[in-house]
Amino acid sequence: MNRDRDRDRDRDRDTDADAGRGVEGAGAVATRGGPGETPRGRGVLEGAFALLDALRRNGDEAGVTELALACGVPKGSVHRLLDQLVGVGAVERTGNRYRVGPQLYRLGQAWEPHPGLRPAARLPLQRLRAATGASVVLVVLREETALTVGSVPGDLEPLLPVRNGLAFRLDTAAGKALRGPRGGGAVLDREDVMEGVCCASLPVRAPDGRTVAALAALVPAGRRLDGLAHAVAGAGAAITRALVGGGRRRPLPPAVLVP
Description:
Blueprint: H1 2-25, H2 39-58, H3 64-71, H4 75-87, E1 91-94, E2 97-100, H5 102-109, H6 117-132, E3 135-142, E4 145-152, E5 167-168, H7 173-179, E6 187-190, E7 197-205, E8 211-220, H8 225-244
Antiparallel strand pairs: 1-2, 3-4, 3-8, 4-5, 6-7, 7-8
Helix pairs in contact: 1-2, 1-4, 2-3, 2-4, 6-8
């Protein structure tokens, strides 16, 4: 019995060490930290998040070998980390393939880039799509990119699929609108970034006037953009009005929730 317990302890210690070495191999910076900090634990967390990000970038399912190559982490460490992520619902496994799991989705849905922004934008985005046929995105500034936090696919599918989590460069119309368009008008893109795609984008402002997001409508080339820009401005104003009204999601009654 004691031998079994010692063997299990040694195996757990080796798992942590392997995961930490794998993360360092992927280019993570090891930090000694102050008293009470555990660099090894940070290494394991960084390795887990590196795997989750690789699954996100893959867009579908991936195997252990693919993920090991993408992250620069040994296959043994990848396998052990994936087993732990499956155990907490952050990753799903089908045979020898892995994908992002439901628990990670639930946690991600709780993130708000600005209080009440996503619920305030939900209906205006849908109405803008219905009125124009455009692919509509709501983006916020994160890590020098325009990160999509709300989206409704339109006529450009499948030429340019839009989805939450998609990041645009800051030299796109949406990125320029986030940084404040010159003259205060709409930023128009007439196939400047991508052939066959035009765009109209405007900042979305909080009630105090701060730019908290940008709203962009993307359409196939050949569409007139003046009317599109007017529709985008109306949708942006609707989001601002909803933010004035609170825009927050009301919590569901506990009786309808599954623990």
